[in-house]
Amino acid sequence: MRLVFAGTPEFSVSALDALHGAGHEIVGVFTQPDRPAGRGRKLMPSPVAQRAAALGLPLYKPEKLRAEAQAELRLLAPEVMVVVAYGLILPQAVLDIPPRGCLNIHASLLPRWRGAAPIQRAIEAGDTETGITIMRMDAGLDTGPMLLREAVPIDEDTTAADLHDRLAPLGARLIVEALAALEAGTLCEQTQPAAGATYASKLSKEEARVDWASDAAGLARRVRAFNPVPVAWSELDGERVRILAARPAPAVDLPPGTIVAADDLRVACGSGSLEITRLQWPGGRVVTAQEAMAARRLGGRRFA
């Protein structure tokens, strides 16, 4: 099919590759403009922009999908538009351009976790499964009719990085299947139920700060949900320590945030305690709890 692809982060690259490999005519790739990245804060093209350039596909990087971008889209005359974590809201004028609609790969089992951070919010909430939904886009926020869905489990060790790496190729496979069914006229639509809808708000660095008065099981889920971005953190003696892996442990009779003087790196919480297994000091490498305990006197000290 003749299509336009819109996506920005690494998550979107698998779908672009799959569509290209399936032989679809990708007449344009829309992605976010180059952004500062790295220590030098140099302008860098998005992962999708880099992959599209490698494939020799026409690239478009509008700041907004306003009149000029809409005119470019009309000139491209796509039959369908595929959208994967693009990062811009598609106005109705854009949704109306492809005669066979705009299809979106969403990383949740809709209607649960509509919005910007479905992978992380599913882990944070303690969901036991999530998945991919292929959806026909409408003017709402991830509210359009569902076309295909497939679930994957979330276990007690699953991080956001793990889910990302499982869901990206799944979404790529399902969008190829959806377009084949669309072309064959066999694609079925299902209206999203109103019951069970939740919103996955954007992540922030500040919300990744550990509140030691909280429940340890919930904190362990947040650590997994915020790995690799924005990474859970807490201050210890004025330094911001990043916590990359942890698990809930039995309660200790100490004020929240206090490190237990023991062989493992356990921290008292409002309910239970949190055993930190991997962490990182500013400017240092990621270390295990055993390495941290051997290098620093941590017992009895307190996270802020």
In short:
The protein is of the alpha/beta class and 304 residues long. It is built from 8 helices and 16 strands.
Could you describe the 3D structure shown?
The chain is of the alpha/beta class. It has helices at 10-21, 47-55, 67-76, 92-95, 118-124, 160-184, 216-225, 289-295, and strands spanning 2-7, 25-30, 35-37, 42-44, 59-60, 80-84, 102-106, 114-115, 129-136, 146-153, 199-200, 232-236, 239-249, 265-268, 273-280, 287-288. Helix 1 (10-21) packs parallel to helix 2, helix 1 (10-21) packs parallel to helix 6 (160-184) and helix 5 packs antiparallel against helix 7 (216-225). The longest helix has 25 residues, at 160-184. It is elongated and about 65 Å long. 40% of the residues are buried.
How is the secondary structure organized here?
Blueprint: E1 2-7, H1 10-21, E2 25-30, E3 35-37, E4 42-44, H2 47-55, E5 59-60, H3 67-76, E6 80-84, H4 92-95, E7 102-106, E8 114-115, H5 118-124, E9 129-136, E10 146-153, H6 160-184, E11 199-200, H7 216-225, E12 232-236, E13 239-249, E14 265-268, E15 273-280, E16 287-288, H8 289-295
Parallel strand pairs: 1-2, 1-6, 2-5, 6-7, 8-11
Antiparallel strand pairs: 3-4, 7-9, 9-10, 12-13, 13-15, 14-15, 15-16
Helix pairs in contact: 1-2, 1-6, 5-7
Q: Which structural traits does this protein have?
A:
alpha/beta; 8 helices; elongated; 304 residues; five-stranded antiparallel beta sheet; seven-stranded mixed beta sheet
